[in-house]
Amino acid sequence: MPGVGLTSRRARATRLRVNPVEGGLHLRDSVLSLDVYGEANLSFVSSAKTALKTLGARRIIATEETVHLIEVLRKKKLTP
Predict the structure, then answer these.
(1) Looking at the 3D structure of the chain, how many domains does it have?
(2) What's the pTM?
(3) What is the percent of the chain with per-residue pLDDT over 70, rounded to a whole number?
(4) Averaged pLDDT, 6-11
């Protein structure tokens, strides 16, 4: 699956290579995924609403508030 090149106005010389995957994006040449449904090594979770589907990830990156909402929705504490 070919990656999609994204550039910001500030750093046009830097290209971020991403691959679209189920429910989110995977950063090419990285362990990081963004809101990926199912299994991932490391996934950034943008909201508790999407987290219920993305929690197949082994590790997540989320704000403290998002983690709290996930725990409330799942009725289970997340382990650090």
Answers:
(1) 1
(2) 0.62
(3) 70
(4) 53
- What is the residue whose two structure tokens read 């994006």? 25
Distance of CA 73 to the CA centre of its chain: 18
Domain hosting 31: range is: 4-74
**Residue given tokens 């998002």 in the structure block:** 66
> Which residue, chain included where needed, has tokens 């199912």?
38
Q: Tokens 């989110």: give the residue.
A: 24
Name the residue with higher pLDDT: 5 or 74: 74
- Establish if 47 belongs to a structural domain: yes
DSSP 7: -
Domain membership flag for residue 63: yes
Q: Which amino acid is at 54?
A: T
Q: Is residue 37 part of a domain?
A: yes
Q: CA nearest 66: which of 42, 80, 41, 49?
A: 49
79 within a domain of the structure (yes/no):
no
Q: Which two tokens stand for residue 57?
A: 């990830």
Here the tokens at position 8 are 């910001």
